[in-house]
Amino acid sequence: MMQNSCEKIPAVLSVVSKETANSTKRDHTSSYIERSSFINNLRNQQKKSEIEERDKADQRLENEILALNISSQKDLSDFLQKNFPNNTQANDIAQKYFNEQISLGFSVDKEYLLRSITKLTNNEHELSTADKIKAHKEQLSKQGKSPTEILQILISKYEKEVAVSTWVENWKSFLQLHELAENKPPTERQAIQNIIAKADFSNENAFTNSLSEIANSAEISTETKLEISQKFKGENISSVSAMDSALKQLKSKKAKIEDAINEKKFEKTSLLSEIETMEDELGNLPMDDPKREKLKTNLNLKKQVLEQTERSIADMETKKPQEVSFILRDGVSAKLNPDGSRCVEIGENKFTIQLPENALFMGRKNMLSINLAFTYKILSQLGMETLFTPKIKNGEVPDKQQRIFGSRILNGLGYKTDQILSQSNIYQLEKDLGKLKQTGSNTTGIEDLEALGIWDISSQSINSNQLDYCLHFIRENRERDVGFAELKEKMTH
Fold this sequence. Notes:
Elements: H1 2-67, E1 69-70, H2 73-83, H3 88-103, E2 108-109, H4 110-118, H5 124-142, H6 147-158, H7 165-182, H8 186-197, H9 206-216, H10 222-231, H11 240-284, H12 291-319, E3 324-329, E4 332-336, E5 342-346, E6 351-354, H13 363-381, H14 400-412, H15 423-434, H16 445-451, E7 455-456, E8 461-462, H17 464-476, H18 484-492
Antiparallel strand pairs: 1-2, 3-4, 4-5, 5-6, 7-8
């Protein structure tokens, strides 16, 4: 009996040992899961904190950039009150310069304006040229010259003067607008001609202003406005809502053409059926039946109608737009996708920047994304698109960091970002950013940026302060046409 009890002891100990081991294993597993969950939560909190800090930094940066500029009448008043209180001459100079810059789509740099007023400088030669043109226009009007004749005379007289090349291009556009108006109904024609007649031909923004008036005119039809927009590459489209409206009109036009084509195709099907029936009837009639002649005549008439219907279908197919899009600016198109989303397409390769959802409070994101397309297009041509980090991908919506960086470049150069850049702004932007590239050199765009101290190749990162300083210097010295060598010397010393 005692012996049996002793023999059972090892077995009991074995069971207890196993249970203890299993219990210990369960405790370890539970502890590991809890520890892993704690670490994951910690990482998520850290990641969320980093994102929030980055967003705050981006917002601070954007506010700092905006603080450098004067973009409203209140900003100008505060600036004058702080720096030139009760100074009438300073007020006149500042107000005139502010009005000119705002009309061109630029904001005003505080430091530049401060120095300019202090030195009491202004561009008298440009003013005298403008006065000459105004006087010449008034003189021609008194002589009974028509607006078309006045424009032709001004173009002939000033087209070789580089200083007023933008004005000359405007005058040529006004002539084209006159030609377009000639083929319109009397009311529309008169409305367009009145807008042209009161235009200030010595204002660089004159043509853009006239297109805006046309867009807002109740006397000009939607069809004519759209035709003008397409002819002049969307220059009268300066807001997201105006772009959306133009796309909506194009979509409606495309739908009407498609409906008309479908109607004609239905007519064609009916005609084919009728012709087939008539041919069968003719085949069954005896050769000497008097009905044959009349049936043949009707059959030939049906075939002629069929030919006309087929020509109409072919003509409408040619006129039907393949996609809902229009040229917004040179080399950049606005497009409505089949799913209702919108995008801008760049160049012949149609690199696409998708726009954010068109919803409430998304206007600024849309505007920054559209203007981003112009900056990206120019930097890509210079081989400098790497400045956008993360990389902008074809067919995707730019993220907040990319949008702010694009806005940072435009603000740094003095452009307003609350409206779509005008074509003249884009031409100037090409000149401004073109100064970052060496001319007549085999260096890449990135190598030029490295030479200016803006880009570090080894770390693949931007020196933000250097970029801001470089853009500021280009902006301040825009009239002097600074070259790469001078820019490099300024950036590296």
